[in-house]
Amino acid sequence: MSKLQRNIQNYKNIVNTKTKCQKCSVNTLCLPSGLSSSELLDLDKVIAPSKIVDKNKPLFSYGEKFDSLYVVHSGMFKSTTVNEEGKERIISFHLPGEVMGLDGIHSDFYESTVTALTMSSYCKIPYKQLMDLSIEHPVIQQNLLKVMSKEIYSCKKNHIDIGSTAKLALFIKTLSYRFEIRGYSGKEFFLPISQRDIANYLGMAEETLSRVFKKLQKSEMVKYKKHILTILKKEELENIAES
Amino acid sequence: MSKLQRNIQNYKNIVNTKTKCQKCSVNTLCLPSGLSSSELLDLDKVIAPSKIVDKNKPLFSYGEKFDSLYVVHSGMFKSTTVNEEGKERIISFHLPGEVMGLDGIHSDFYESTVTALTMSSYCKIPYKQLMDLSIEHPVIQQNLLKVMSKEIYSCKKNHIDIGSTAKLALFIKTLSYRFEIRGYSGKEFFLPISQRDIANYLGMAEETLSRVFKKLQKSEMVKYKKHILTILKKEELENIAES
DNA sequence: CGGCTGTTTGATGAGTGTCAACGAATGTGG
DNA sequence: CCACATTCGTTGACACTCATCAAACAGCCG
């Protein structure tokens, strides 16, 4: 099976939702990263087996009481806030192995709403139990700290003052990298996100995104059809991303 | 002594640098928040007494080995990265009680350079020792998690697609809030940041910032003279910030 | 006083948001 | 399976914001 096929199957949710952390395909990128087998066993005790959620269904919503972290098992999610005028603003997309709900830790309430972009599955980790467990196994909490540190880093590093073309190129480049470290192809992947959502996330008009996307395709940097994105000229794309 | 005067004295560093956490004026906003006295005593053992650093001197630099977190004791710092063309990009300003160096946790190297904007003082917290201590006192690590969660939240929440005027208004509003919860006046405060740095941080041209700033002053929303910023119409300023 | 750095002002053009309209794709119910 | 409705993406014309360039000005320190 090709890496692209595996990627697409990921979104069609042909995954075993009974998988424990030990056998999970993303356990090296997830909270369990670097844990010994006995630690993994303990972690499994507090993590519910992964559950399936339908497209457009929320995992949790802004303002709800915070009690658990969530990890993407398969599929893709988006997290959003609502601005003063009631408009949705997308603040991140989540790939398998990525932790969601981190912004709820400090205030005891979820600060964002997380929704499935396609049929997906997730693991739920009760926060209190995770804290209790991490007293026994400090490495678990240190992993959490690392995950959060990385989140801070990547968020702060995001350029805000770059042109639309560079924004899109950077977005694609970052996605490509994230797919690659998950064992999927970084050159060709399935993207269950609407252009409207991408535009929203990148902070530009839908029309601008459409034009910019077309430009990248005309110059044969990328191909995009039926939600399958193919990177044709990686080098040049990366050059565009950095300006 | 007025709140503004206290604020200015903060920058002139008329502070006791021998202060232990128990007596520190920002201990409720800093890592020690919510600790019992015995926990505070233990924390003090690993935190070096605060040290003074001169204007424009770096605390640590991008790429150096990560070994400690730093907390602002008085004054103000900026953290920066360098983009591909070698240009400095400011990613945050740090007020007393705020933790610096968090982005180094995940990679073992500092991911940014932190520099004093004015004569300032800081506390150094060796990370390994903090981790050891937090096995004994889990509440310490939970505070750290909260600090990081808040950081993620405020970073993600930052609007990126708003106009220059709104950006500046939001920047001022946020600063005002941060001063206020520190016990200084939120309506009038000393701002040891050059307009160039503000423009850099907000991702706009120096000239644009100058014009926008002037506009806010002409409409008598704020006053800005000799680095003292006065908010005249809080309500209206906040309205501008949200668009 | 002169030399720096930081800030202001004006003129100009490129890049993007907005509006309006259309076309393509997808979903729905008979 | 087809007709229809709805969402999603595309295209063009236009206005406006903002970055850029150039130059002058203000404040500060030796």
List keywords for this structure.
alpha+beta; 2 domains; Jelly Rolls; 243 residues; globular; DNA-binding; 4-stranded antiparallel sheet; homodimer; Arc Repressor Mutant, subunit A; 40% helix; 21% strand; 8 helices
Question: What is the CA–CA distance across the termini of chain A?
Answer: 37 Å
Q: What percentage of residues of chain A falls in helices of 4 or more residues?
A: 25-40%
Count of DSSP H/I helices of chain A? 8
Number of domains of chain A: 2
Mean pLDDT, all residues of chain A? 90
By CATH reckoning, the class of the largest domain in chain A would read Mainly Beta
User: How would a textbook summarize the main sheet of chain A?
Assistant: 4 strands, antiparallel
Give the strand content of chain A: 15-25%
Which H/E pattern describes the elements of chain A?
HHEEEEEEEEHHHEHHEEH
Outline the low-pLDDT stretches of chain A. none
CATH homologous superfamily designation of the largest domain in chain A: Jelly Rolls
Radius of gyration of chain A, CA atoms, in whole angstroms: 18 Å
| Strand-pairing-aware structural class of chain A | alpha+beta
Oligomer: homodimer
Q: Which overall shape of chain A is indicated by the principal axes computed on the Cα atoms?
A: globular
The CATH architecture of the largest domain in chain A can be given as Sandwich
User: What's the CATH topology name of the largest domain in chain A?
Assistant: Jelly Rolls
Which two chains share the most extensive interface? A-B, 41 and 40 residues
The number of distinct β-strands of chain A equals 11
